[in-house]
Structure formats: C-alpha cells, structure tokens
Amino acid sequence: MTANTDASATRRLATLAAGSLLVVLAATLLQVSFGAYPIPIADAWHTVFDPEIWSSAGVWRAFLLGGQLPEWLSRRQVVVWNIRLPRVLVGTLVGANLAVSGAIFQIVTRNELASPYILGVSNGAGMVVLLTLTLFSGLLPVMPLLAALGGAVAFLIVYAIAWKNGTNPVRLVLAGVVVSTVFGSVQRALFFFIDNLGVVMSAQTWLSGSLLGTDWAQVRIALPFTVLSLALAFLVTNELDVLLLGEETAESLGMPVEKVRFGVAGIAILSTAAAIAVAGLIGFVGLIVPHMVRNIVGNNTRDLLAGCVVLGPALLVGADVGARLALDPVQLPVGIITGLVGGPYFLYLMRRTENLGDI
User: Fold this and answer.
1) Cis omega before residue 329 (within 30°)?
2) Which of 168, 136, 122 is nearest to 272 (CA)?
3) Distance (Å, rounded) from C-alpha 134 to C-alpha 194?
4) Which single residue of 5, 216, 283, 308 has CA 20 to 30 Å from 113?
5) Side-chain-side CA neighbours of residue 170 (13 Å)
6) What's the CA gap between 20 and 252, in Å, rounded?
7) Please, are residues 100 and 231 in contact by the beta-carbon 8 Å criterion?
8) d(Cα 196, Cα 121) in Å, to the nearest integer?
C-alpha cells in the first residue's frame, strides 16, 4: 500500500513538473518574441536554444560574472539573451524562492495561512531593501543578506508578540498582520525623505513587485542565495516532517523544537530575501502555491518542496507575461497580477476548507 502510494505521488509530481515546464517554456517564447524588436516564434525558439551560445564559455562568463559580451553575437541574440531572457530567469528564481519559503513557513508554524507576506517577513526584508536602494546603493551586491536580516528581525518580533506559553495559528497570523502593517507604514514614510523623483518612481515600482528592467545583474545577485537556500531546504526535509507531527511528538522524539524551528525559519527568510531583493514585494505566491502543490502531491515535505520549486516559477513567469502583454505597451507590475489571481483563489480556499488554519 505504501509503495503504491509513493509511486502515485511520484507520478503526480512528475506530471506537475512537466506541466510547469511547458508553462515556463511557452511563457519564455512569448516573453522573448514580443517587444519593440519583434521576433517570430520560430526564430525565438532557435535563438533561445542556439548551441553556439550554450557552448560558449565567453558568453556565460559575461552573463554570470559580468563583463563585455563577445562581438560575434548578432543583434537578435543580444536582444533575446541579454535583455529579455534575464527577466524570465529572475522570475524563475523569485517564483521558486517565494513558493518554497511559503511552504516552510506553513510547516514551521503549522498554519496553512502562513506566508512570508502575511508573517511580516516580506515587509521586514522590504524595508531594509528600500533603505539600501535609496541610501546605501553601494551595498547592492549583499542586499539579499541585508534583506534576510530585516526579515529575521520581523519574524522574531512576530514570534515574540504571538508567544504566550506557546503559539497558535491565529495569534501568529494576527501578529504577522500587525508587524507587516507597521513595517509597511515605515516604508511609505521613507518616501517623504527622498528628493530624487527617479528614485521615488523606482522604489514605488519595487514596492508593487515587478520584473521590469531586470537583467543579468539581478540574476547574479539572486542565484547564489537561491541555490544555497533551496539546498538547505531539501537538507532539512526530515526535520520538517517531524515538525508536522506537532510539538509534543517532536519533543518526545528528542528534537529541540524551538532551535530547529528558528533554524529552518532562517532558511525560509533567506529564500524570501533573495526574491525580494531583485523583484520587490510580490504577494500571494508564497501563500497559494504550497496549497496547490499539497492538493496534487500530498503532505510529504520533499515532494511538497520539489513541487513548489517547479510550480512557483510557472505561476510567476506566466503572470509576468500577462503583466507585460495584457495592456501592451503599458506594462503592469507582476505583483498586481499575482494579487488578482491569488485573492480569488484564497477566497475559494476559505470557502472549501472547514478548519482553515491548522495543518
């Protein structure tokens, strides 16, 4: 029975991965085809999968380490690979980070309402990022670490407020809402101290959650922190499975619950920070993707995280194509699209679930 169940979950995960990959591929072709320099879909396909580029060490050195692009690249190759594809790559990294961090927060708090945004982590990290963008631009390369520090402080405050001989799902959510509101107010207050209109507009776009203007610099910022946080997340799946059993059971098995909880939460905070540092405050991805994956593959933590890694990018990259093309030539922040999609889905979830809150 267990073997059949595991095989069924594996098949569902493989189907989810295949479907998500198709969505990302279709969104990529649309993303690189449309714009001021239009490219036919067939030409876009050949350019994206051009073996000459894939096998060129000089090209990848320029992309991943910075520097001058090789002169032999054609105009179409430069447009696709240096201007349009980085937006897809950043969307992929951000979607995976937000989805995985949301799943971890839901497990750590045993609360299916938990997400980086609702627990105040996003706004805590966001306030530090906004300060870095406006006052300390020289610290941009380490912005994910600074954002992680801000998110960690926010999470500690939420936990301290919610603690009363332990915590429960309702108190955590309420404390998260309060802390998120306070940090959000501080963010808006910072605008009154910014004199540069260009910085104000850039910061406002960032607060809305946007992939507009992203390039390989954002990929280089987010990629190492994404790889680190996702690797750590998969290393602690056994601990996450034990936490799902409840505090009393975990303690009876010899687990130092509070230490593990804060350590695992640190991974989720780093993952959230890597996303916020390059794309701003994008809501609902960390809330709804874990629910969608859980409904498909079940509660096994390793399968859940793997599903989030593939479905998060599909949702965000697909939403970004909609944000870019829906009102062309006006480009909406992707955070608006995720809100329009995530809000109704969350209402559906509330109507369908009788005991919404505890996992």
Assistant:
1) yes
2) 122
3) 7
4) 5
5) 2
6) 39
7) no
8) 28
- Separation of alpha carbons 98 and 117, rounded Å: 10
Amino acid at 255: M
Contact 300/9 with Cβ under 8 angstroms?
yes
Q: Tell me whether residue 254 is exposed, middle or buried, using C-beta atoms within 10 angstroms of its C-beta: 0 to 12, 13 to 18, 19 or more.
A: exposed
Q: Which residue has the tokens 């936990």?
A: 159
Predicted TM-score (pTM) of this structure: 0.90
Residue 353: band (very low, low, confident or very high) from pLDDT cuts 50, 70, 90: low
Q: What's the pLDDT at 1?
A: 47
Query: Tell me: the pLDDT tens digits for 296-341?
Result: 998 889 999 999 999 999 999 999 998 888 777 778 888 888 888 8
DSSP state string for 246-275: -HHHHHHTT--HHHHHHHHHHHHHHHHHHH
pLDDT band at 248 (very low <50, low <70, confident <90, very high): confident
CA distances from 277 to 96, 121, 150, 201 (A): 14, 13, 11, 17
Question: Count of residues for the chain?
Answer: 359
User: CA–CA separation, 331 vs 323, rounded Å?
Assistant: 6
Q: Facing residues of 327 across strands?
A: 330
Taking residue 82's Cβ as centre, other Cβ atoms within 10 Å add up to: 16
Per-residue pLDDT tens over the stretch 68-79: 888 899 999 999
Strand, coil or helix: 225: helix
Using alpha carbons, list the distances in angstroms from residue 296 to 77, 87, 358.
Answer: 38, 28, 19
Provide the 3-class DSSP secondary structure of residue 358: strand
Q: Could you give the CA distance from residue 120 to residue 304 in angstroms, rounded to a whole number?
A: 23
Q: Which residues pair with 111 in a beta bridge?
A: 358
Q: What is the pLDDT of residue 5?
A: 60
As to burial, measured by CB atoms within 10 angstroms (0-12 exposed, 13-18 middle, 19+ buried), residue 264 is buried
Q: 268 φ, ψ to 5°?
A: -65, -35
Please name every residue paired with 330 in a beta bridge, in sequence order, or none if there are none.
327
Amino acid at 157: I
